[in-house]
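Morning, I've got a small favour to ask if you have a moment. I've been staring at a protein lately and its backbone has me curious. You're getting the sequence in one-letter code plus the fold written as tokens. I've dropped the whole record in just underneath, so have a look:
=====
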Amino acid sequence: MENIMLITSGNQDVISNRYSIVKSLYVEEVGRYLRDYQTVIDFIQQGINNGISNIGLVLNNKVYDSIVQILYNGGLYGLVKVWILPEFYFDKAELKIEQDFLFIDDYNKPRLESFQVHLTDMCNLNCKGCGHFSNIAKEPRSLELGKYRDDLQQLRSMFWGVERIYLLGGEPLLYQNISEVIKQTRQIFPDSEIHITTNGLLLPKMEDNFFDVVNMTKSHIEISMYPKTYENREEISNVLEKHDLVNTTIIWGRVVFTKKMLKRKHKTPQKSFDNCYNRKNACYFLQDGKLAKCPMMLLIDIFDKEYGIRRECKKEYIDLYKDKIDGWKALELLNRPSEMCSYCAETPQEFEWDIKSDNDAKAEDWFVEE
């Protein structure tokens, strides 16, 4: 690449060192939180006037989407090429990054904020009222690697990137091929933050290769602090320290469990949709070639089969292969309420965490008290 202007919220000198491989380098410090977006536009316009043809955004995933949209709205699209350089790729030791990790933005496709992937129904806790119904899954299912890779490639054809991808379950560490899932996810979505959401109890039993893959792919281990996790916190912390994991989040506070399912449909699905946790956090759900608004859309069959429930509504989702739609249309469908939202309460109810396997679980564990 002959010339590039880097716009970064990081340290100017460090960024310069990291990009020593670029022949002609222009670095501009924008400010940590990039509040002044007009400054960004001014920098880019100045670069264009000086013959700059490439703009590199060295930002965290939550910030640079806004900048990209401003470039598009400001009429600068077509005058420069925009390259995406996620901060999580920077090696703190080497202070540089290989040129292969530059990602060009595609204005013809939207960007997906996030999605979840359910690796397995199996779990080592079997929590009461599990949102993925893992504790009552009679025949636990697991992700098929080949299908998963196909699904990721199909999503890639619809969206130019994904901000965050969550790998969970059940308990994701019980999935035998989790390291391969992480590698495939990183290969197809190199610009995404990969989060492995776990109760952490199995971390001391994981092989070294798992931790090597987590570090190599810059993935993020996210540990929920269940009571049993807290009891084993010292052993878990020692393992994390031993493997020098760069990206780890431990949610030390009490894990809050909520239930929101209604026995009967209500007439205001829009209110439930507006208040939905999954909607506010864009937790779309990917499973077997289908992309849904939330996990319930694709996993509710486990609950209905267990308790003999027949729902008088269709379960809306996007079939990535049969529905001939682009990413823009997909986002439109994902961001409006469906008939299934009529079975969710406007306000979820909290309950105390407990273990309930399929032998002693009951439907009331999920139903809101009306």
About this structure: The chain has twelve helices and 15 strands. Confidence is low (pLDDT under 50) at residues 11-34, 92-101. The radius of gyration is 22 Å. Residues 179 and 209 are 8 Å apart (CA to CA).
